[in-house]
Amino acid sequence: MISLIRPSFAIMRGARPANVKAIYREMSIPGLAQIAGSSEIVQVLNSLVAGLSSVLQDNLVGIYLYGSLVTEDFDAQVSDLDLVVVPNRGLDDASFHSLKELHQQVILRYPEWDDRLELAYVSLDALKTFRSKQSRIAIISPGEPFHQLDAGYDWLISWYMLRETGIALRGPDIASLIDPIEPAHYIEAVQSHIEAYRNSAKSANSKSNLSYIVLTTARGLYTVLHGQPTSKVKAAAWAARAYPKWARLVNQALRWRVNPQSDGLSVDDVRPRVAAFVNDLLAMLPNKEEAAKAKSAPDT
Asked: Are residues 291 and 210 in the same domain?
């Protein structure tokens, strides 16, 4: 049986454990404080690691945990479980269908994780070459069935966070599989990403989506202005302090994240305020052209 420990934020780059038991025995993982006393998440991870190892066998390079569970943002009621699975080569049809069955089996065994598993299957070559070409990856995520898509430079944000915070449940250190990514490139990608919410806020059709837009915009702006990532919860607290005009909306977004029906407001009631919030915060972003000129200007 794997016992849980109360975590502290201490992920050390270097000697990372090779399996789930080692991780929970030897490392403190942020996010587990919220579910201390329950071993269910460890059971889910064990089921996935065992199943993935069985299906992929010699094609498996590594399995990596990242996302909210390792970045102090995990909420046991709503957070997803994020894994990246690295096969040596892309998935064939037989493997794809076997993995689809595995996902279904895990959900049948742990129904509370239905629509809360996010697994991306990314070949070793795809991680090495994502800057220069698109590759076929497979993914299951909340609201979407298991499917395949093309991914390239547009996944830089995910691969940056995976490289910086990912923990090996099986396989080598993830930093050995992804070439270093310049923080400046990550920051630029985050800025481009949240700028797209200007349109998304106008068309969002649920309060869950609007909550996600509010919190992700706040987190993105914090990241761009401070030069480092943070959690949604910490970004929300920062945004409420920095922009008191929007403190009420930010706090509402935190509640909608857990329960979209926590108040009597409709999507139509909320959408204009969220759109205004996004516009306000995006106005705080640095001008890309000016930033580029500043970078290229000779030192005096």
From this structure: yes
pLDDT higher than 60, residue 125: yes
**Same-domain pairing of 269 and 205:** yes
Same domain membership, residue 248 and residue 207: yes
| CATH label of the domain that carries residue 132 | 3.30.460.10
Asked if residue 30 has pLDDT above 70, the reply is: no
The first and second tokens of residue 98, run together, are 């076997």
Question: Phi and psi of 14, rounded to 5°?
Answer: 135, -120
* pTM of the entire predicted model: 0.82
Residues 55 and 89 in one domain: yes
Contact, 1 vs 38, CB < 8 A?
A: no
How buried is residue 156: exposed, middle or buried, by Cβ count under 10 Å (0-12/13-18/19+)? buried
Residues 129 and 30 both lie in one domain: yes
The span from the CA of 181 to the CA of 211, in Å, is 29
- C-alpha to C-alpha distance for 298 and 114, rounded to whole angstroms: 54
pLDDT in tens, 147-180: 999 999 999 999 999 999 998 889 999 999 999 9
